Structures are given as C-alpha cells and as structure tokens.
Amino acid sequence: MAKVKTNAIRILDAKKIAYEVLTYDQQDGKIDGVSVAAKIGRNSLEVYKTLVAQGASKSIYVYVIPVEAELDLKKAAKAAGEKNIEMIPVKDILKWTGYIRGGCSPIGMKKEYKTFIDKSCLELENIVVSAGKIGVQMVIDPKMLVNLTKAETVDVRK
After folding, report:
1. Which residues of 31-66 are buried (b: 16+ CB within 10 A; e: fewer)?
2. Measured between alpha carbons, how far is 92 from 59 in angstroms, rounded to an integer?
3. pLDDT tens string for the chain (158 positions)?
4. To pair with 50 at 20 to 30 A between CA atoms, which of 1, 71, 109, 139?
5. What is the DSSP string of the chain?
6. pTM: predicted TM-score of the whole model, two decimal places
C-alpha cells in the first residue's frame, strides 16, 4: 500500500521529525475525536484536536486540545491577547487553513498562525493529531510539535 502523503507529513519528512501514521476507516461518518481515538486504539487523553478561532482583531489562531476537552474561549482569548475570540464557522475552515473539518492538522496550514497547544501535552511522551486528511492521524512527540508550530503551551481547556 502506498504511504499516505499529506502536506503535514511532507513537512515532517523534510525536517526529519519522527512520527508514526495511523489510519482509520471513516466510512461510518464518525470522525469526531473520541470516535477516532477508539478506532485507532488510543486513550482519548493522548488524542488532540485542532481548532481554529478568530479574535476581535480579525487575527486567526490555532488551538490544539485533547479531544474530550472543550476550548475555554476566555482563556483562549487571554492567551492570544485578544478581548474575545470566536470559533470560525466550519464552512470557512478550508478557506483559512487549507484543510477540512475532521482533517485539520496543526502542521502545514496555508499560513503560519499563532498556535497554542494545551499544556497537558507536555505530560505525555507522544500525542496524536490529524495528519491533514480524514482517516489519517499521526503520532508525534509533543515537544517537536510545539517547536515546529512555534506554539505556546497554555491552559485553554474548560
């Protein structure tokens, strides 16, 4: 079987960053993070989702948090130095990131956005994030992800 190549995977390969690809069947339409964690046989505390929000200043921000968690918009706005932030509409994810809902990776978006990764990632040896395509996840050292995305690690969960 040909190895899946997404923009995120190409970037990791180019920078010689270690990762592991995990694939899952998305035919049933269950692509939410908790379902994906079960499909790939991982604890949901290790699986992170990528959320995209817009601040009052119109700047775009990326938040990477555990799949079972909910983004605390007040904490997220404070981390970004914004008065407030709102999640971008699902229909706009592709426009801003180059990815679609359920396949949005924190690596390889159209532009480099200010990124915040929940600090809980630092307690883990590896985390799982989308590889940029529905059905494809990647396991990566969270410190490598933080460095690659130039992210800040903060508490942004409810």
Report:
1. bebebbbebeebebebbbbbbbbbbeeeebbbbbbb
2. 14
3. 346 789 999 999 999 999 999 999 888 888 888 889 999 999 999 999 999 999 999 999 999 999 999 999 999 999 999 999 999 999 999 999 999 988 999 999 999 999 999 999 999 999 999 999 999 999 999 999 999 999 999 999 99
4. 1
5. -PPP--HHHHHHHHTT---EEEE---TTS--SHHHHHHHTT--TTTBEEEEEEEETTS-EEEEEEETT--B-HHHHHHHHT-S-EEEPPGGGHHHHHS--TT---SSS-SS--EEEEEGGGGGSS-EEEEEEETTEEEEE-HHHHHHHHTPEEE--B-
6. 0.94
